[in-house]
Specification:
The chain is α+β, with helices and mostly antiparallel strands. Helices cover 33% and strands 23% of the residues. It is built from 16 helices and 23 strands. It has a seven-stranded mixed sheet with strand order 17-18-16-15-21-22-23. It has a six-stranded mixed sheet with strand order 3-2-1-5-14-13, sandwiched between helices. Helix 9 crosses helix 14 and helix 10 packs antiparallel against helix 12. The mean pLDDT is 94. It holds the Pfam family FGGY_C. Belongs to the FGGY kinase family. Key enzyme in the regulation of glycerol uptake and metabolism. Catalyzes the phosphorylation of glycerol to yield sn-glycerol 3-phosphate.
C-alpha cells in the first residue's frame, strides 16, 4: 500500500509553519518562519497579513522539500490558526486594507464597554457564549470599519472581505482574486462573537448591534470537509480542514469524550474541556465555544479558559529584560534556586483573560525583596503559567462539575520539565505529554485526513495517541494552598491600572 501524506499549516501568533504527517500520524518534515510583531501604540498589536501569506507559502515549499515530496503526493492539506486575529482585504486586488489586528490587541476595550451598555460584559453571551472583551474579532472588525477612511462604505458595497487567519489563507490557497473560496469553520466563527452557538450561523441581532455588514462575512462550514482545491505550489491538493489552534489541539490530543481536557502552552495558554453536543454556559469566567464539527455530524462544544500571556512572558524576559539570551536558558536558571524567593509575576500585559476578564489589569511583580535574584524571577516567570492554569481548572469544575483527573498537555513550553512538574504540583493531578507534542498541527491534519479518507474514524485516530512523558504531583497540600493564596494576592495588585475609556 502506498503511504498517504497530509500537510498541516499552522499560522500562529509569532510564526507560521507547515508539518507533513504520514498515515501513522508521525511527523515527516517541518518548516517554520517567524513574522514581525508590530506595536503601533501601547496595547496595540498588529501583523502584516501579506507578510504572513508570503511566509506560509515559503514554509509549505520548505516542508515539502525536506520531506522529499511533490505536492501531488499530498492527499490533503489542513489549516489551523491563531484565533480572533482579524484581517480585512479588498476582494478585487487581494490586498489587506490595514494590518491585521491581533487577538492580544486591546484597542477595542472602550468599544466593548460601550457595546455592553447597562447589561455589561454578558450582553451577547446567551447567543455567542462569549463575554464582551477586546479579545474577540467582532469588535475588531467594527473598529476597522469605523477608523479606516471610506472602508465602511466599501464594505457595505460588498468590496471588502473579513476573515480570521484561516479565511485569509483558504482564500489565497484556493485562488485568491481568481475564484478563492471565502469560508471559515465553526470553531473560528465561534471566536468572532458574531456567530450564534446554537444555530452555527451569523447572528443578525449581534451584527446589527456591532454595525458589521453581513456582506463582509465568510460562509460558515464544518471543520472537516473539502473547501476547495489548491492552486500554485499546491495545485490540485484538497484544502480539507480548518480549526482554530486550540480546537485543533483538542482534536490532535484525541479529547473526543465528554470530560477530556487539554492545555496548550504557546504565546498564551488555552485549556479546553469537552462538554459534548450541548453548549455549557459559564458563570465563572470561562467561554463556551465550538470544539469541532466533522462534516454533517452534530457539533462538539467545549468550555475554554483562555490565558493571554504564558510563553510570551518568557519572550519578554528574554527580549525586553535581556536576562536570558535564549528561551531554553530559563529552565536551568530557574532550577538553580529552590523556590521563587517570595516573588510573583502576574503577566497582565494586555489585561487578564479567564477567569477574570479584566481589561484594566496590567502586569505586576509582587513580593520583591533584596533577597530576590534573577533566578527567583525566572522561576516566577514559569510559575505564573502554572497558577493561571490552576485558576482555569478551578473555574471549569465550578461550571461543569467535572473534576479533571489528568491533564493532557502540548505546545513548546512542555519541553520545560521544571514547569510541567510545577504544573502537576499545583493542580494535584498527573500531567501527560504525548509523543507528538505538535498536536495543533496534528489535529488539523487529522481533520483533513478524515475528510479525504486517509483515516476512517475517531477510533483509528485514538489508536495513534501515545504517551511520551508524565509528571506526578509531589507538593504538599499545605504548601500548595499557601502559594496559591500568595498568587491571588499578586493578581489583585494587577487590577485597576488602566482606565477602560
Amino acid at each position: 500500500m502506498t503511504d498517504k501524506y497530509v500537510a498541516a499549516i499552522d499560522q500562529g501568533t509569532t510564526s507560521s509553519r507547515c508539518i507533513v504527517f504520514d498515515q501513522q500520524g508521525g511527523i515527516v518534515a517541518v518548516d517554520q518562519q517567524e513574522h514581525r510583531q508590530i506595536f503601533p501604540k501601547p496595547g496595540w498589536v498588529e501583523h502584516d497579513a501579506s507578510e504572513i501569506w508570503t511566509k506560509v507559502q515559503a514554509v509549505v515549499g520548505g516542508a515539502l522539500e525536506r520531506a522529499g515530496l511533490r505536492a501531488d503526493q499530498l492527499t490533503a492539506i489542513g489549516i489551523t490558526n491563531q484565533r480572533e486575529t482579524t484581517v480585512l482585504w479588498d476582494r478585487a486586488t487581494g490586498e489587506p486594507v490595514h494590518n491585521a489586528i491581533v487577538w492580544q490587541d486591546t484597542r477595542t476595550a472602550a468599544l466593548c464597554t460601550e457595546l455592553g451598555g447597562e447589561v455589561g460584559q454578558d450582553r451577547f453571551r446567551d447567543r455567542t457564549g462569549l463575554p464582551l472583551a477586546s479579545y474577540f474579532a467582532g469588535p475588531k472588525v467594527a473598529w476597522l470599519l469605523d477608523n479606516v477612511p471610506g472602508l465602511r462604505q466599501r464594505a457595505e458595497r460588498g468590496e471588502i472581505a473579513f476573515g480570521t487567519m484561516d479565511s485569509w489563507l483558504i482564500w489565497n490557497l484556493t485562488g485568491g482574486t481568481d475564484g478563492g473560496r471565502h469560508v471559515t469553520d465553526v470553531t473560528n466563527a465561534s471566536r468572532t462573537m458574531l456567530m450564534n452557538l446554537e444555530s452555527q450561523e451569523w447572528d443578525q441581532s449581534v451584527l446589527d448591534a456591532m454595525n458589521v455588514p453581513a456582506a463582509v462575512l465568510p460562509e460558515i462550514r464544518s471543520s472537516s470537509e473539502v473547501y476547495g482545491t489548491g492552486v500554485g505550489q499546491l495545485a490540485g491538493v484538497p484544502v480539507a480542514s480548518a480549526l482554530g489552534d486550540q480546537q485543533a489541539a483538542v482534536f490532535g490530543q484525541t479529547c473526543y469524550g465528554v470530560g477530556e481536557a487539554k492545555n496548550t502552552y504557546g504565546t498564551g495558554s488555552f485549556l479546553l474541556l469537552n462538554t459534548g453536543n450541548r453548549p455549557v454556559p459559564s458563570k465563572h469566567g470561562l467561554v463556551t465555544t465550538m470544539g469541532y464539527r466533522l462534516g454533517d455530524e452534530p457539533p462538539v462544544y467545549c468550555l475554554e479558559g483562555s490565558i493571554a500571556i504564558t510563553g510570551a512572558l518568557v519572550q519578554w524576559f528574554r527580549d525586553q529584560l535581556g536576562i536570558i539570551n535564549d528561551a531554553s536558558e530559563i529552565e536551568p536558571l530557574a532550577a538553580s534556586v529552590e523556590d521563587n524567593g517570595g516573588a510573583y509575576i502576574v503577566p497582565a500585559f494586555s489585561g487578564l483573560f479567564a477567569p477574570y476578564w479584566r481589561s484594566d489589569a496590567r502586569g505586576v511583580i509582587a513580593g520583591l525583596t533584596r533577597y530576590v535574584t534573577k533566578a527567583h524571577l525566572a522561576r516566577a516567570v514559569l510559575e505564573a503559567t502554572s497558577w493561571q492554569t490552576r485558576e482555569v481548572v478551578d473555574a471549569m469544575y465550578q461550571d461543569s462539575g467535572v473534576e479533571i483527573t489528568t491533564l493532557k498537555v502540548d505546545g513548546g513550553m512542555t519541553a520545560n520539565s521544571l514547569l510541567m512538574q510545577h504544573q502537576a504540583d499545583v493542580l494535584g493531578v498527573p500531567v501527560i505529554r504525548p509523543v507528538v507534542a505538535e498536536t495543533t498541527c496534528l489535529g488539523a491534519a487529522y481533520a483533513a485526513g478524515l475528510a479525504t479518507g486517509v483515516w476512517s474514524d475517531l477510533d483509528e485516530l485514538r489508536a495513534h495517541w501515545k504517551r511520551d512523558a508524565e509528571w506526578t504531583p509531589s507538593m504538599s497540600e499545605e504548601e500548595r494552598d499557601r502559594e496559591y493564596a500568595n498568587w491571588h494576592k499578586a493578581v489583585e495588585r494587577s487590577f485597576g491600572w488602566e482606565k477602560s475609556d
